[in-house]
Design brief:
The chain is mainly β and 110 residues long. The protein is built from 2 helices and 5 strands, in the order αβββαββ. It has a 3-stranded antiparallel beta sheet. The two termini are 29 Å apart.
Length: 110
């Protein structure tokens, strides 16, 4: 069952999964590094293991709050409502069929 329709690039959130240590990623913006809610909440850097080693990541999302733990270190603990105050994002809290609250992020089209 679809909760809403539209282009996922503008109606959904994505968590960046990226080995950003490669040279081709040296000019990323803060919100584009591994563990960030892409384009919205930047994650702390310096916790990825070397290429070829396994990383362990936990992601917790409750309403507008997102927490990312990478290899035992909290690299993101943010609130989309707070990010919204600084940017043009619209955050809408919805209630899905199961009664659980979900957060819908609407990105401006650029």
């Amino acid at each position: 069952m679809l909760l809403w329709k539209g282009d996922a690039a503008y109606t959904a959130m994505s968590l960046q999964i990226l080995d950003h240590e490669a040279d081709m990623y040296k000019n990323l913006q803060a919100h584009q590094y591994h563990g960030s809610v892409y384009g919205v909440l930047p994650a702390k850097r310096g916790y990825l293991k070397l290429v070829g080693e396994w990383n362990v990541q936990e992601v917790y999302v409750e309403g507008p709050k997102t927490k990312v733990i990478l290899n035992g270190a909290t690299i993101l603990d943010g609130d989309l409502k707070e990010a919204r105050k600084k940017e043009l994002w619209m955050v809408k809290i919805i209630r899905v069929a199961s009664g659980i609250k979900a957060c819908r992020l609407l990105r401006p089209r650029i």
